[in-house]
Design a protein that fits this description.
The protein has 157 residues and is of the alpha+beta class. It is 37% helix and 24% strand. The protein contains six helices and eight strands, in the order βαββββαβββαααα.
Length: 157
């Protein structure tokens, strides 16, 4: 059985653990620095408004990817200015689980991801972002890493 937790990526220079726990994330892993003040941390479960609470607490943009058995990634992102979006990773596999793909249209995800990245001070690669939403992989975590890199998060890979 694969990973059914998730990951949070945010630009925050302090200790992320207490803020994540207070926001409603459980079983938070050690965070690792990526680049330019961005951190990535894993978690087992996230409460319904955990992303919103974390963004308010840090005053920083964040992206959450929740994994379903390492097969599918459900993506949500939010910036302090309210710019947010959602997407789905590994669509072909998700279809096999009968996840309604119409709830996760590709083009609105791409548009939202690009606006979020710009609001977060990043320089995204539009075609690479689009590719992550239509690509297939054995592990959805690989697509999540590709998405972070496509959004312009330094040293995400």
């Amino acid at each position: 059985m694969g990973n059914s937790g998730g990951s949070v990526t945010t630009r925050y220079s302090g200790d992320l653990h207490p803020l994540m726990r207070e926001a409603g994330f459980s079983d938070v892993d050690d965070s690792r620095a990526v680049g330019e003040g961005w951190q990535v941390a894993g978690f087992a479960h996230a409460g319904g408004d955990a992303l919103e609470t974390l963004v308010r607490a840090t005053g920083a943009p964040a992206i959450v990817v929740s994994f379903f058995d390492s097969d599918v990634g459900f993506v949500r992102a939010l910036a302090p200015d309210g710019t947010g979006w959602k997407g789905l990773l590994n669509r072909e596999t998700a279809e096999g689980y009968e996840i309604p793909l119409e709830r996760f249209p590709v083009e609105p995800a791409v548009t939202g991801a690009l606006a979020w990245a710009v609001a977060a001070g990043l320089t995204p690669d539009e075609e690479a972002v689009r590719e992550t939403f239509v690509a297939s992989a054995v592990f959805a975590e690989d697509l999540a890493v590709d998405l972070l890199a496509a959004l312009g998060i330094p040293d995400a890979q």
